[in-house]
Amino acid sequence: MKRAILPLFLMISLAAFGQGKSGSAGRPAGAGAPSQSMGHGPEMGRPADAGKPAVTGQPESTPSANSSQAHEQRALTSAQINGGSFKMLQEKTGMSSEQLQQLYASSGAKNYGQFVSAVMVSKNLNLDTNAVLEGMKTKSLGKTLKDMGVSDQAASAEIKKANKEIKAADKKKSS
């Protein structure tokens, strides 16, 4: 029985010895090497995110909340659907309320204001609305317009113009 315990004891000892610090190999414990019981120091091999809460239920390929691509689009409210800017979009696009709601849901816009601005600008510049909204899935409205060949000055002017039209439409509806 003693013969069976001795090899087992040696294997366990070797396994425990092998888990020591890699930087302290060959040095006696009292010869300037930090004690392993201290539990800190950069050579401990601790991951950079140790102590931070783990993100669960999110696949690694999903952008983080800090990513510019990550966002949750807010649902349209009844006030927005019944508002002046929504009615203006219906007139400008010739689309029904349901069609506009579906377009909003599939758009790259982060919120209703961004959506209305993009549709208005695309209509004012005679651009493909779907292409503008698709570009907004990864870029700002200004960058999307620039990538579509619109100058910085024209893009800025059209965005300002659209925002004024939107405000006027919403003010007109509420009075």
What are the salient characteristics of this protein?
about 180 residues, mainly alpha, 8 helices, elongated
Plain-language structure description:
The longest helix has 23 residues, at 152-174. The model is unreliable at 35-44 and 55-70 (pLDDT under 50). Helix 5 (112-124) packs across helix 8. The chain is mainly α and 175 residues long. It has helices at 2-18, 78-81, 84-93, 97-106, 112-124, 129-135, 141-147, 152-174. Helix content is 52%, strand content 0%. The protein starts with a helix and ends with a helix.
Structural category = mainly alpha
How would you characterize the largest beta sheet? none
Counted by DSSP, the helix tally is 8
Average pLDDT confidence is: 75
Instruction: Tell me the β content.
Output: under 5%
Concise structural overview:
The chain is an all-alpha fold and 175 residues long.
Task: Set out the fold topology.
Elements: H1 2-18, H2 78-81, H3 84-93, H4 97-106, H5 112-124, H6 129-135, H7 141-147, H8 152-174
